[in-house]
Every structure is written in C-alpha cells, then in structure tokens.
Amino acid sequence: MAVMTGRRRSRSRIAIAALAASSLIGLSGCGLYDDESDGGGGGSSDGTLDVVASFYPMTYLAERIGGEHVSVSTLTGPGVEPHDLDISPRQTAAVADADLIVYLKGLQPAVDETVEQSATGEVAEATGFTSLESHGTEEEDGHDHGEDEGHDHDHEHEGESPEEHAEHADEGHDHGDEGHAEEEHAEEEHDHGEDGHGHDHSHDIDGMDPHIWLDPTKYAQVAQGVGASLANADPDHMADYERNTAELVEELTALDQEFTEGLAEVEGGTFITTHSAFGYLAARYGLHEESITGLDPEAEPSGARMRELREVAEADGVTTVFFETLVSDDTARTLADDLGLETAVLDPLEGITEDSPGADYPEVMRANLEALRQALGAA
User: Fold this and answer.
1) pLDDT tens profile 174-225
2) Predicted TM-score of the model (pTM)
3) Cα-flanking dihedrals φ and ψ of residue 283, to 5°?
4) How far apart are CA 235 and CA 52, in angstroms?
5) Which of 122, 171, 184, 323 would be a feasible disulfide site paired with 332, CB 3.0-4.6 Å?
C-alpha cells in the first residue's frame, strides 16, 4: 500500500491552520508556510548555510546540529498535519535555492515530488540513514494488521551504539546515494557532476512505516546522517557539526535509556492510538500498538475494525485510548466512550503547537513516556 493516499482535508481547513500557525513561527524555525504574506523564496542573506527542512523532526535536527552556522526554514507550519501539505511556488523556489534539504521520503508526497524535481543542493533524506520496517498494513476492511511484526524489530544489531548500527543500516535496503555511513557520505556518495546534485530518489518505501523519529535510537542514526550532510555542504564548520551531532546523539541515547527503564515493567502491554505512528517505539520497548486507522491518519475505520479494537481492549485490559494534537479526536473519543475508557494525548511529534505536551522533541517524548507509563499501569 502507499504510505499516504492523498490530501483529504479541505483547503479552508489548511488555510485556517496556517493562519493560526503564524503566531507560532518561533516554535519550529523560520517558516516557509506563510506564502500569502511573502512571495519570496526564503533563504539566508547573512552568510549562514541555507537549510530547508520538511517538517518538525527534520527541523529539530537541522537546528540542533547546525547551530549558529545555519538558517533553517520549515515547509510545514505548526498546526498543519504534515501529510496534508501542499507546496506553493514560493516553497518550490526555496527548495531549489537551498544549500541543503532535510526531509523524510514517503511521509509527504508533495515534498518528495518537489525535492526530486527542484532541489539542486545537498540532500539529507532521513530514510537513507536507518533501516525501515512495516508496522501497519491496512486491509480493505480497515483492519490494521502487522502490528505484531514490531516485536520482530530488526534488532540483529541490538546493543550497538548508533554509530555502529549506522554502518549496517544499508543492509537489505537499496538507498542509492542516500544510504551510507558518515565517511562514505563525505567522501564517496556525492558524485555531483556538473550541477552539484547527486542524490538518488529511487528508494521506494511504499508499505513501510516512515515514523522513524519516534524511536530515539533510529532518530540518532538520522541525526548522524544529517550531521554528515551539513559537514559535506559546509566543510569549513565540520568540527562544529561533528561536535553538535555527538552531543545530540548522546542526549538521544540517554532518552532511549529513560524509555527502556521506564517501560521495562510493562513490557508486552497494549495501547490504542489514532493512527499507527508508534510502531517503532512499540517495537523498541517491547510494547504492542493497536491503531484505529493504520498508517494514514485521515482514513476512516470500518465497523469491523472498531469491533476488533473493542475485543482487543477487553482482552488486554486496555485503559486508555490515545489521540493526537494535529488530528481529529472524534473517533478515539467515540471508541473510548463506548468502552468506558480514558483518553489521553500521545503525540507523534509531527509538529509543535501550543497544544503540544512540550516545547521540543525531548520534552514531548518524555511526556509520551509518562502517558504510556500511566496508561499501562507503571505510574
């Protein structure tokens, strides 16, 4: 199945979200999403590296690793569900002019198309820096199968550091010029030719789960790839990028340890979410995710799927149905009401808004950890 099936929300809803986002620009980098107020192409004029990121998790990496040497613009505004993004002419121009694009293929079809057609600078494509898995496969009846596959997480390199795992991330995956370890990235993989644009977009992740940032270990691997890309695009500041990458990887490793310890006593526990965003997190920490709509947050669940979830909730002693900040909570609340269950937020970190349970990636992830602990009986 295709990971995403089209943009269902009306343009009026997107416009309202974009308007609301205008007061939140400072939460996730400089915005390229206010295109009605500025028809320009973005970009930096202060000598910093011009970086365009697709949505919040990619923006966070670019800002944390790039530091003072980068000017980061974000294609997806706060409050806009990333899968719904339409690319404006201004954003297309910004992608074409950028020194570096940081994005995740397979999550936002409009971004994928724009990068392939317009990017001329360095490209850091997140799925090229780690391995992908299939966690949610929707059948015609709306069932979300395959969740148990998460328990067969590709932990053949379990116990390795993110640096060691990154060396194995390409095995069994055809990443083209974007799947590589840091040294290969800097020295071998970028045969730019005359236009300086040597990335390969042949990597197809249809049917695979793109939510890799919700596993801190995989996110650390992506961070290393972004750091290498920044160094390749701006070798004069390579030492700073390497230092910032190492610091961020250390923080993500510590966060992984917090999750490991915090969820150890509830291993095997089942939780229900709006859409199948937490497959990597569940697999990493020995949990079981059941989602209402599968990988597509806008899909409508069938009656059969809702009945199945009721059976799962009763059999597994589920106490809470989780909803998200950027997607309607109607279906989650309906299910919870029918079963007499609690509702709570489990944030997939696709964007930061005033309603998010934290101001940045680490804060929201720790809020998610506490929400899971409480729902699963560990808190």
Assistant:
1) 433 433 333 333 333 333 333 333 333 333 467 799 999 999 999 999 999 9
2) 0.75
3) -65, -40
4) 18
5) 323
